[in-house]
Design a protein that fits this description.
- The chain is mainly α and about 140 residues long.
- The chain has one domain.
- The chain has six helices and no strands.
- Keywords: Membrane, Transmembrane, Transmembrane helix.
- It comes from Mucilaginibacter panaciglaebae.
- InterPro entries: DUF4126.
Length: about 140
């Protein structure tokens, strides 16, 4: 079955939001979809690796490892500069893949995915996590 990406803007915003919350998940999901629905627009680009089965599997295991590692006490805050950069790159990679697979401009997808990931990083940290932590501590 051929997949046609009809609204890359909203799909890129979605993976950018995901990258801000779980950085490895955005490229893992994007690569999984692209590996099962190959795009001729990606074939001759620098993003062609995103639609290979081996990369999809590697990214899936990285996402699982990130999920487990994020639960450890030594895990750094998501708003540390290195973590923000990783989330931005993750969103940019996923966004570029989506836009390029739909025949669009990969740089525009990268810009949109990366910037959405940054917004999502701070939004999920300050709005969701800090509020939840505050409410849980106030119950005790």
């Amino acid at each position: 079955m051929k997949l046609k990406i009809e609204k890359p803007l909203w799909q890129t915003v979605g993976v950018g939001l995901l990258a801000g919350m779980r950085s490895a998940s955005a490229p893992a999901i994007t690569s999984y979809i692209l590996s099962h629905h190959k795009s001729k627009d990606l074939d001759k680009s620098g993003l062609s690796f995103m639609q290979t089965n081996i990369i999809a599997k590697v990214l899936k295991y990285m996402a699982i490892a990130e999920f487990v590692g994020d639960k450890l006490p030594a895990a750094p805050d998501r708003i540390k500069p290195v973590a923000i950069a990783a989330r931005c790159v993750s969103g940019a990679l996923a966004g570029a893949g989506i836009f390029k697979a739909s025949g669009g401009n990969a740089w525009l997808g990268a810009l949109l995915g990366g910037s959405t990931a940054i917004v999502s990083t701070f939004g999920s940290f300050f709005c969701a996590r800090q509020q939840l932590k505050h409410r849980v501590l106030s119950i005790r």
